[in-house]
Amino acid sequence: MSLFKKNRTPLLTKRDELYKTIISKLPIQNRIDYCESLICRIQFDLLKSKCRIQKRKFKKQLKAAKTEINNLKKL
């Protein structure tokens, strides 16, 4: 048994309801475009946010979006 939590990459479908219900059914290029747009929006929100909890949420969503792009490019 490990004493440390494993850093699991969060899934975008668990963090973004719009992506889960609508975007994930679109062609790959549309999904990549959405993720790139989402990354830009999250980075802007990170700069403006003062709340540590909100920043942590944004960082997890940012990581999920980047991972999703990498997975889509492998397809």
In brief:
Helix 3 runs antiparallel to helix 4. With 75 residues, the chain is mainly α.
Structure in words:
The protein has 75 residues and is mostly helical. Helices cover 71% and strands 0% of the residues. The protein contains four helices and no strands. Helix 3 runs antiparallel to helix 4. It starts with 11 loop residues before the first helix and ends with a helix.
Count the beta strands.
0
The unreliable regions are none
Largest sheet: none
What is the 3D shape?
globular
Q: Averaging pLDDT over every residue, what do you get?
A: 91
Query: How many H/I helical runs?
Result: 4
Which percent range describes the beta-strand content? under 5%
Head-to-tail CA distance between termini: 34 Å
Structural class: mainly alpha
The succession of helices and strands, N to C, reads: HHHH
**Approximately how much helix is present in the residues?**
over 70%
Rounded to an integer in angstroms, the radius of gyration calculated over CA atoms is 14 Å
Notable traits:
75 residues; 71% helix; mainly alpha; 4 helices
Helix and strand topology:
Elements: H1 12-15, H2 17-21, H3 28-48, H4 52-74
Helix pairs in contact: 3-4
